[in-house]
């Protein structure tokens, strides 16, 4: 389980450290790498552990090649996916095309999303956090707990 918000930097080569808590969660689950994909509707990246990527892959394989909406989504989000190894310092190298999509500059933010992690440009993350959610968009996850 991934949770928390962590501020980091990204260097000119596109390397940034995956937060230690996230590395520990990956190691505990036996996950040596992540898959980086565009995050639909957020202009951020999602970092999925291999097991979560496999679940997504299964859904993609079930899509009809004649379902235009599904094929457009596969082209947009799955075709941009990159399998990423962590180096010995716990850093990930974010490919240039994904850095450009998410607008990653110098300051980045990693956010835990439960099953996976998001990587944001810090200014974009702060804008996203400042936006008010409409009443109907708020989900009460604690209801009935």
From TrEMBL:
Keywords in alphabetical order: Cytoplasm, DNA-binding, Repeat, Transcription, Transcription regulation
Gene Ontology terms, cellular component aspect? Answer: cytoplasm; nucleoid
The protein's matches in InterPro entries, at most eight in alphabetical order, are given as: MraZ, MraZ_C, MraZ_dom, MraZ_N, MraZ_sf, SpoVT-AbrB_dom, SpoVT-AbrB_sf
Q: Which family does it belong to?
A: Belongs to the MraZ family.
MF-aspect GO terms: DNA-binding transcription factor activity; transcription cis-regulatory region binding
Matching entries from Gene3D superfamilies are given as: Transcriptional regulator MraZ domain
- How does the annotation summarize its subunit structure? Forms oligomers.
> Where can this protein be found?
Cytoplasm, Nucleoid
PROSITE patterns attached to this UniProt entry = SPOVT_ABRB
- Species in which this protein is naturally found: Anaeromyxobacter diazotrophicus
Protein name stated in the entry = Transcriptional regulator MraZ
Cross-referenced Pfam families, in alphabetical order?
MraZ
Q: Which segment of the chain is annotated as a signal peptide?
A: none
- Domain SpoVT-AbrB, by residue range, is 5-52, 81-124
Keyword Coiled coil included in the entry's annotation:
no
Gene name of the record = mraZ
Q: Which GO terms describe its biological process?
A: negative regulation of DNA-templated transcription initiation
Top-level taxon: Bacteria
Q: Which HAMAP family match?
A: MraZ
């Amino acid at each position: 389980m991934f949770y928390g918000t962590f501020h980091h930097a990204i260097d000119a080569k596109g390397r940034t450290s995956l937060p230690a808590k996230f590395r520990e969660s990956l190691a505990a689950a036996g996950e040596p790498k992540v898959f980086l994909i565009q995050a639909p509707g957020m202009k951020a990246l999602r970092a999925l552990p291999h097991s979560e990527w496999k679940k997504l892959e299964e859904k993609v394989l079930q899509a009809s090649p004649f379902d235009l909406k599904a094929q457009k989504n596969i082209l947009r989000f799955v075709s941009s996916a990159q399998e990423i190894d962590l180096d010995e310092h716990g850093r990930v190298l974010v490919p240039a095309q994904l850095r450009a999509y998410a607008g990653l500059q110098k300051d980045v933010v990693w956010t835990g999303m439960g099953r996976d992690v998001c990587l944001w440009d810090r200014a974009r993350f702060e804008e996203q956090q400042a936006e008010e959610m409409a009443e109907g968009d708020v989900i009460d996850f604690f209801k009935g707990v």
